[in-house]
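User: Please predict the structure of the protein below. I'd like the answer in structure-token form so I can feed it into my own downstream comparison script.

Assistant: Understood. Taking the following sequence of 297 residues as input:
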Amino acid sequence: NGKPVSGWGEVNLQLVRRLGESGQLDVTVREVGSSAERHLQIPLQNWLKGVEEPDPITALGIRPWRPQIAPVIAQLDPEGPAQAAGIQLGDRLISLNRQPLDDWQQVIDAVKVLPGATAVLEVERDGQRVDVPLTLAARGEGEARRGYLGAGVEGGEWPAEMLREVRFGPLDAVVEGAKRTWTMSLLTLDSLKKMLFGELSVKNLSGPITIAKVAGASAQSGLGDFLNFLAYLSISLGVLNLLPIPVLDGGHLLFYLVEWVRGRPLSERVQGWGVQIGISLVVGVMLLALVNDLGRL
């Protein structure tokens, strides 16, 4: 859509802005080793409207290139199916239901289409191969329902030509920070609007439990990711706090604006009604977010 992108994160951000919409998605691509650009149009029709936990890049039929990673277990979810079945750190996955597994992406593809299914996982441990029966868990609902193994691997090495280092000077960093803050503020408002009109599922609303989980995951990824998460969280809370809902700061500003226009404040009775409505809305959203959190556990 005319916005330059230098990484998959920026691609995903632009696609998220089109969720639930119809029309054309304009994409400019350039083949590896060529300077010629091609302009493509992808038709969208109520794209991923109301889908819980949408994955825009995958939904377009695109799979980002990743380095090949051997399916050797390096992480286990203590409450996941793999741990419960006896899978151990250092195990190499050989096959799932006799389907060979040579790369970790093959494991992901094979598992996600088997939510809640019983399967046999062949693993290599200490030079010997053993069959491990297990029941995969299920995550998500509806079209987003997918299988879950509860295991992970170490990240692979990326080729040097695919790595990008972006730096900003002190002044440029302030300008870039302001641009990103504005972009995320608009995205938050747009997401709220789409939730109200049913274009975006309210299941995407998160509360304190999800915030804590994401905070922990971002902290494990590094200081930069953690600071980015804190910034996005602060922007989201700031935008929500400025909504014209009584009891929030935006509601106070609304009362001040009405007082400025009328030349006198609203009656205490009207302000009291506004506060009661505002509290009901805020508590309702909090409960909805908490229910979503509990559903993800």
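That's the full token string. The two ends are 36 Å apart (CA to CA).
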